[in-house]
Write a structure and sequence with these properties.
The longest helix has 9 residues. By secondary structure, the chain is α+β, with helices and mostly antiparallel strands. Strand 7 and strand 8 form a beta hairpin. The chain is built from 5 helices and 11 strands. Helix 3 crosses helix 4. The strands form 3 sheets. A 7-stranded antiparallel β-sheet has the order 2-1-7-8-9-4-3. Helices cover about 15% and strands about 35% of the residues. It has 2 domains: about 130 residues; about 80 residues, Membrane-bound Lytic Murein Transglycosylase D, Chain A. This is Contractile injection system tube protein N-terminal domain-containing protein. It holds the Pfam family CIS_tube.
Length: about 250
Amino acid sequence: MERVAFLIEPGGERIGCLLNPETLVMRRVAGLHPRRALGGSLPWGGPGDDPLLFTGGGRTELTLDLLFDVSLSGSTLQTEDVRDLTEPLWRLAENGLREDGAMRPSLARMVWGKRGNYLGVVAAVAERLEDFTSTGAPRRSWLRMRLLRVEDEVAPREPVVEQEPPDPEAVAAALSPEDYEAHTVLGAGEDAGAPSGQRLDELAYQRYGDPSLWRLIAALNGVADPNNLPAGQVLRLPTPEALRRVR
């Protein structure tokens, strides 16, 4: 199995580990807090649980226990002091990047195996040093790291290209008489699945899902005032399938 590694963002620096974590604990904390009163005490007493204030969101924490030992093979850094191997992980908890006038730590993406891919901020690092040399240099380290997951930035969406309105003359030339259906304009108070006092934009939305197609309906039927259709007028409307075919 591929060993766990940390990819630093921005920059792309890779910090590898000699061994995979001894343990990995994932913890999810919901977005809520106990409700407090300005005076310090709640206005009601007696047994029971504190009322909760729901704030939304929450946080996901990952706690890893990593082992480093200078006697293990595989390290590209030859040293007698294990702290030379763990120092890059300590730096991840330092506020080294400036953003919006404030300092913040780098983002670290933990990559482990096929499904382990977590982007987070190193919130805490603790280290237990063992196996000291005669000069006082530790050769082994048990390092515990706590990460707070952050959301990956959403890639910018591609601009939506609005579809050009269909040319009434081109639509009329492309359609055959079988591609039309008759529709009788409703009068005020009539109920046939459309608002009373029908307008062409309402009819276009009801039939095609696009109110801007009222211009096409007006042009195909010679309607001068789309907001004042006489009740009982019969309109020739392209079927939705035919209109999709020629657009």
